TrEMBL record:
Domain called Mediator of RNA polymerase II transcription subunit 16 central helical bridge: residue spans: 465-654
All residue ranges annotated as the Mediator complex subunit Med16 N-terminal domain in the record: 114-391
Pfam families reported for this sequence: Med16_bridge, Med16_C, Med16_N
Family to which the UniProt record says this protein belongs: Belongs to the Mediator complex subunit 16 family.
UniProt domain Mediator complex subunit 16 C-terminal: residue ranges: 770-827
Record protein name field: Mediator of RNA polymerase II transcription subunit 16
GO process terms (BP): positive regulation of DNA-templated transcription
WD repeats: 68-102
Subunit structure: Component of the Mediator complex.
High-level lineage: Eukaryota, Metazoa, Chordata, Cephalochordata, Leptocardii
Compartment list: Nucleus
Principal place of residence: nucleus
Domain of life: Eukaryota
Length: 833
């Protein structure tokens, strides 16, 4: 466990009145975007912000976007929705606001709706469960089958609409014992209902909410007094005639062990934290009770206990069917710890037996089975959630002492040496926290925490987490935190082997995510730039192929025969014909007829296919002995080269319909058929790749013709792939990266790519020249229209879509949520220029 980076504000040393009892709140989304908020006065330089929320991509912690919420009181709750695009914020006295990204831009937020809870003080706030979940099976980690390792569980949504569709909304518990359910309609109109949890209103200081398989909402609460019981309630929500109704049922409660211990009941008096150990599990709950200078932590769990019957009723009970009752029982207690300031529970759904979890440190895999606890003395402990056995520890106090030069500064900032709030990432490989001074910390948590383990074990753990991200759609940035440069090749090999063993349909579904993860892994190494560029080219070509083939329709509706795209794929997979026109003869060209307007609107994509084919073939003679060069993996991928052949055949046919949609090449001879030449060379390269020949065994005629290719046609200057930037471009080090908000590090953090920058066939065409990575058009040095930029790779694209045809709109919509690399889009403002 070590610090990845610390992000502080420009006015961090100016300790002012913003050190208030009100703690910070933070949240980590499944798309690996961090959000945190604090008191009304903070170290941020913009005084016009009113109780702002700060949003940051952890790969670039110096680029923090802050927006004003206009809350009248301090923000006490902050929650991302399951999709990672909407954010809930709640102030102390009853106002809840729903924020959403505008056009999926991480630095452009707008208010969707707000709800006033009658001025009630909010204690806890949670999104309702939308149903279904993927669970990582801890007992089948060695399996290579996705369906055995990662299982889908039928989870009923907390609130359903007509037809069983999940209804979005949230649940809030207030300090007077009221529970509020807010449901959102299709147009985001809120409808709120409220009920009292008990027969009468009672004081509530801490509370938490969790969800069951059957769709019930379970509320745990305490009035803050250690002598009072921790109470539980079950909420059953229903939607009758478009009106939400709520039925509340009390559940068994328990008294804390410290309350019945004569030596502890006067020492620990205040309940400060009550949390279920998982959002989707109600079997265990952790309670923190604090005194003046110390805290005790208790873990309680549900268990079935036999009911003792009077002897006169025992003969009537059937044999083997003794009545059972569900009761709370104490599992573990640790006492005499420093004051607990923050507690974070895991988000990763892990399926494992209690016997395995009770020996959590023996399973050598903590993800989903560990809690993060921050103490006032600056220590942060990662503990097993059932046994509270310490798995890892980090001392914030001792680490900060090494950074502060003067004694006066140490004394002035001594109050900041603990976390005010913390939260684990989705896969539990990262931990974020904010101290009372507003500093943002991100910690790296290695899945394999036990020393002297099998060297293959960390690889297997990382691969399992990457596969979970692949199937769930989560961003994998937090998993990449724990992948060292020496592990990259082993992780990629294991991930590729597991992926190749899945059925073809499953491979096709997750192909895009799989290739994107491989590209991100290659970017972690100094010599992986070429292979990373190949992955991005494969991503783009696969997207272009899918979009163009989707335009094809069979001539007869309802026909059981193969469609034109399937027929073309079968033909190109079997035919070794190098003459493009002869291949076209075997196809029914009328099935490939597309409107000329549509073809012309896609000319830029068609042009990129032609340019890339020309560029790839021109690299073939240089691949011998250079496995890390750009194009090396693509020239050995028979499926990729077959896809290129299919596209060239389609382009040739479409050229007969609309000649202006054809790619434009600059040839030295007017009589040269450029498409025919590229198809012939591509077919020969495909046959070599299909036979799995080494680069040294390629046909001499193919190598000679590719050597002459630059003299016959002008090879275009393709844009270089986006370089690795930000935190992920730094190799793992014990020294954290210290950054200041608004000031990018002066030293470059980009990896050197494996290709030489002086190569005339691969250069960006200008340091400040913008290029639209989505539409494949040049934007110039100063684009006239607003542009958006990827928060990970800095690639740019036009913010507003000017598409006129449905094919263009579908292509733009494909990349509306995220960049080609999987990063978030951010709007480029005047301050960025």
């Amino acid at each position: 466990m070590d610090v990845v980076f610390v992000s502080e504000w420009e006015k961090q040393d100016q300790v002012r009145s913003y050190v208030l009892p009100t703690p910070y709140v933070c949240s980590w989304s499944c798309r690996n975007v961090l959000a945190f908020a604090g008191p009304v006065q903070g170290p941020w330089s913009d005084a016009s912000l009113v109780r702002p929320i700060h949003v940051v991509d952890p790969d670039r912690p110096w680029d923090v976007h802050s927006f004003s919420t206009q809350h009248g009181e301090d923000i006490v709750a902050l929650e991302w929705d399951p999709s990672g695009t909407q954010l809930l914020s709640a102030e102390r006295f009853g106002e809840v606001k729903l924020w959403s990204m505008k056009d999926y831009l991480v630095n452009d937020w707008h208010l969707v709706t707000s709800v006033d809870l009658d001025g009630e003080e909010i204690v806890t706030l949670q999104w309702l469960h939308v149903g279904g979940r993927l669970t990582l099976n801890n007992m089948n980690m060695t399996s290579t089958v996705f369906n055995e390792k990662i299982t889908h569980q039928s989870y009923a949504p907390s609130l359903s609409e007509f037809g069983g569709k999940a209804c979005n909304g949230w649940v809030a518990v207030t300090a007077t014992g009221m529970v509020y359910i807010t449901a959102l309609s299709k147009d985001n109109t809120p409808t709120t209902v409220s009920e009292c949890l008990g027969n009468v209103r009672s004081r509530v200081v801490v509370a938490d909410a969790a969800f069951t398989v059957k769709g019930f909402v379970i509320i745990a609460l305490s009035d803050g007094n250690s002598m009072s019981p921790v109470k539980f309630y079950k909420l059953k929500l229903s939607n009758v005639n478009e009106k939400c109704t709520m039925h509340i049922e009390p559940l068994p409660s328990f008294f804390l062990r410290c309350a019945v211990d004569p030596n502890k009941k006067d020492k620990y008096t205040n309940v400060t934290h009550v949390k279920f150990e998982h959002r989707e599990g109600v079997e265990q709950v952790v309670v923190v009770v604090s005194g003046t200078n110390s805290s005790t932590i208790e873990v309680w769990g549900l268990r079935n206990e036999p009911v003792t019957l009077h002897k006169i009723f025992q003969p009537q009970a059937p044999a083997g069917k003794q009545p059972m009752a569900v009761k709370w029982g104490s599992l573990t207690t640790i006492a005499d710890r420093p004051l607990v300031t923050a507690l974070a529970v895991p988000k990763l759904p892990v399926q494992s037996s209690n016997l395995i979890e009770s020996k959590g440190y023996d399973t050598k895999f903590f993800n989903g089975s560990a809690l993060a606890i921050a103490f006032q003395d600056g220590n942060i402990h990662l503990v097993q959630r059932l046994t509270l056995h310490t798995l890892a520890m980090f001392s914030l106090d001792s680490w900060q002492r090494g950074l502060e030069e003067t004694v006066a500064k140490r004394q002035r900032l001594s109050m900041f040496r603990f976390l005010s709030c913390c939260e684990l990432s989705g896969t539990c490989c990262g931990l974020m926290g904010v101290d009372p001074g507003g500093r943002l910390y991100v910690f790296r948590l290695t899945p394999s925490l036990t020393q002297n383990v099998d060297p293959a074990l960390p690889i297997r753990h990382v691969v399992s987490l990457l596969e979970y991200c692949m199937l769930s759609g989560w961003d994998c940035w937090d998993v990449l935190l724990v992948v060292g440069p020496s592990m990259v090749e082993s992780v990629i090999d294991k991930l590729t082997d597991n992926y190749s063993q899945q059925n073809p349909a499953l491979q096709q579904i997750h192909l895009t995510k799989f290739v994107a993860i491989k590209a991100a892994l290659y970017r972690l190494t100094n010599n992986g730039g070429g292979k990373s560029a190949d992955c991005y080219a494969k991503l783009l070509l696969n997207a272009i192929s899918s979009s163009l083939k989707a335009l094809l329709r069979p001539t007869q509706l309802g026909s059981q025969d193969r469609g034109p795209a399937e027929k073309l794929a079968v033909l190109c997979s079997k035919s070794t014909e190098t003459d493009l026109d002869k291949v076209m003869i075997n196809l029914e060209t009328k099935e490939f007829v597309i409107e000329p307007v549509t073809l012309q609107s896609l000319q830029q994509l068609i042009q990129w296919v032609g340019d890339f084919t020309l560029y790839l073939l021109s690299l073939l003679p240089t691949q011998q002995g250079m496995p890390n060069r750009v194009g090396s993996t693509l020239l050995r991928d028979a499926l990729f080269l077959q896809m290129l052949r299919e596209l060239l055949v389609m382009v040739r046919i479409w050229g007969l319909i609309k000649s202006s949609c054809l790619p434009v090449f600059t040839a030295t001879s007017d009589n040269l058929d450029s498409l025919q030449l590229l198809f012939k060379l591509l077919t020969k390269a495909w046959m070599c790749a299909k036979e799995e020949r080494l680069s040294s065994d390629w046909d001499d005629s193919l190598v000679d013709e590719c050597c002459l290719l630059p003299s016959r046609m002008l090879v275009p200057n393709l844009d270089s792939p986006p370089p690795a930037e930000g935190i992920m471009a730094r190799p793992q080090s014990k020294q954290p990266i210290l950054v200041q908000v608004g000031n990018a590090p002066s030293q470059t953090t980009s990896h050197m790519m494996s290709y030489p920058t002086s190569d005339p066939m691969w250069r960006s065409g200008g340091e400040h020249l913008s290029h639209d990575i989505v539409r494949r058009v040049h934007l110039g040095v100063s684009p006239a229209e607003d542009v958006k930029q990827c928060s990970r790779c800095s690639s740019t694209s036009l913010l507003k879509s000017f598409a006129k045809t449905s094919a263009q709109k579908a292509w733009d919509q494909r990349w509306a949520r995220q960049c080609l690399c999987g990063g978030q889009w951010r709007k480029v403002t005047e301050d960025d220029d």
